[in-house]
Amino acid sequence: MLNPAAWRILNLQSGERVQWLKAMPCDCYDPTANYDAQRSCTNCDHGWVYRDQGEQRALVAEQRRHILNPELGWVQFSELKLTTLEGMRIGTGDKVVLLDRTALARERLHRGADTLPHLYPVEVLVVADGSTVYAAGSDYRVNLTTRAVTWVTAGPDNVYAVEYTYRPEYWFMGDDLRPQRPAGLGDGQTPQRGTLSLDPPSG
Ligand SMILES: [Zn+2]
Question: pTM for the complete prediction?
Fold first, then answer.
């Protein structure tokens, strides 16, 4: 039987910080009228509104497994598994941002739409177009909170490239295991465990 107190200690020792964004269906779709305004809705992302639930601690571990591919035979792939601490009632389609990790992005931005696409940028490393590498401070400035690049000099005419690090975002794809249930003595619940994906759940 799982001991919630022992589990909590394990999680605090080996877990990491994650930002939890809960996904709720947007009101731009009315099921009684069958009216779907998603395309023109500015409040949501493909019908979902993400609400920040704050920082949590969770166990994020890589799991390798083999799947049988009809053409390639047995192939190995790895996926990230998230295991929650009690109290974080995570659901399919929620987003988690791994606050203790960084990933590297190289993306194009357009003058006039100078916002870094990833939600939690950490550091901008290079800003350049085909002919020029621009200097931080004297050519451009970055506000990491608003994710905006603002230009001090004339800068690039049109499209330019940005290399930056960010906290990686994942979607929670749902529970692997049985639903949460009371664990042992006391009022604890068993942890939830599921797969993290870089792509949103379909449907
Ligand atoms: Zn909407």
Answer: 0.77
> Which residue ranges form the domains of the chain, and what is each CATH number?
4-101+168-197 (2.40.10), 103-166 (no CATH)
State both tokens at 56: 């949590």
Nearest alpha-carbon partner for 165 in 108, 113, 104, 118: 104
* CA 117 / ligand 1 centre spacing (Å): 19
Residue 91, Cβ neighbours under 10 Å: how many? 13
Which amino acid belongs to residue 192?
Q
How many angstroms does the Cα of residue 31 sit away from the middle of ligand 1? 13
> How do residues 147-187 score in pLDDT, each as one tens digit?
999 999 999 999 999 999 999 999 999 887 666 666 665 55
